[in-house]
Amino acid sequence: MEWKSIQSQKSLDTEIILKLSTFLEYDFFRIYSQYLILYAPQANTNYNTIENKKSSLPHFRKSIYMKEVVDFILEQIENGNKTKAQIMEEYKIPKTTIYKWVNKYRQSQHNDERK
Fold first, then answer.
1. CA 72 to chain centre
2. Which of 10, 40, 46, 106 has its CA 20 to 30 A from that of 54?
3. DSSP 3-state assignment of 39?
4. 3-state secondary structure 56-74
5. Cβ(42)–Cβ(92) under 8 Å?
6. Per residue in 15-30, pLDDT tens?
7. 8-state DSSP, 54
């Protein structure tokens, strides 16, 4: 498949995207998944409801936000493009998460400046 024909398509098969990712050494799936995480509505996380079936598999809490997303959000706040309230409203990120990021990454930047 030629590059021009790939660019002109409205959608691509995942096999082609995988081959392009491998060839170009760039994870195109990561871009898409991060877009979904930022703009998709939050799932119901109430694990005590009847609809949620008990699984024998362990439940791991893991940060769904990659470093690039955290950096983007913090950059929006630092540059004054968006307020913390706007970030919470638009991206549905909890208030405590944003404040933890701000404190954590301010400390790491401050420690880096000392070195």
1. 10
2. 40
3. helix
4. CCCCCCCCCCCHHHHHHHH
5. yes
6. 888 888 888 888 877 7
7. P
Angle at 33 (CA atoms; ends 67, 104), nearest 5 degrees: 20
Closest CA to 62 of 37, 89, 39: 37
Within 10 A of 74 (CB to CB), how many other CB atoms are there? 18
CA 83, CA 103: separation in Å to the nearest integer?
16
Q: What is the pTM of this model?
A: 0.47
- Phi/psi for 63 (5° steps) reads -65, 125
How confident is the model at residue 94, as a pLDDT? Answer: 87
Token reading at 25:
């050494």
81 DSSP 8-state letter: S
- Closest CA relative to residue 34, chosen from 88, 5, 72, 84: 72
Find, among 68, 67, 70, 48, the residue nearest to 59 by Cα: 48
* Residue 26 neighbours by CB distance under 10 Å: 11
Kindly report, residue by residue over 26-62, the tens digit of the pLDDT. 887 777 777 777 776 555 555 444 445 555 655 545 5
